[in-house]
Amino acid sequence: MPRIIDFGLAKTASPQLDGETLITQAGNWVGTPGYMSPEQADPTVMDVDTRTDVYSLGAVLYVLLTGCRTFDAKNQRFDEFLRWLREEDPPRPSTRVSAVKPTSQVTAEARGVESGPLISMLSGDLDWITMKALEKDRARRYGSAMELADDIKRYLGNEAVSARPASFGYRARKYVLRHKH
After folding, report:
1. pLDDT tens digits, residue range 143-158?
2. Is residue 3 assigned to a domain?
């Protein structure tokens, strides 16, 4: 049974030919536009690590929540996409859904809710989690996919998420939500 164990770039499992390398060469663009991390778009960065996978997971989460990619690379020049990836932040998921009406309606219907409640669901913790996974500065991004998964579990359990500044009021609201019964 196949299992996904790494979202890194695939390498061949067959024997290599003479002169062929199994190592991705620095300075070459490898990845799917829209899911590449900013460090993959920077030819000066030589130490791409697991936080690149976290960024890609954040891009997948963004699509799942909004029905849109963080950036539409289809009608853009590749160099413009790379500049955007290194310099611009995507809109928060709740902002994206509220800004694109036809898409927000389709996205809401696919989730069995109206677009207003969907925007409310996305506002707050899901915005914070997604934007931390998509952080341009990888030092402020989740350090691993497990940290991202843990924050999603905390969100689902009405616990305070690490991606959001934990004020007393925020923690108190989460406590009340967990102990409503």
Report:
1. 999 999 999 999 999 9
2. no
Instruction: Tell me the CATH number at 125.
Output: 1.10.510.10
Q: Which residues of 134-168 are buried (b: 16+ CB within 10 A; e: fewer)?
A: bbeebeebbeebebbeebbebbeeebbbbbbeeee
Would you say residue 45 lies in a domain? yes
What is the rounded distance in angstroms from the CA atom of residue 167 to the CA atom of residue 161?
11
Number of domains present in the structure of the chain = 1
Asked, for residue 166, whether it belongs to a domain, the answer is yes
Kindly give the interhelix angle for 125-133 and 115-122, rounded to the nearest 10 degrees: 60
What pTM did the predictor assign?
0.78
Q: Is residue 6 scored above 60 in pLDDT?
A: no
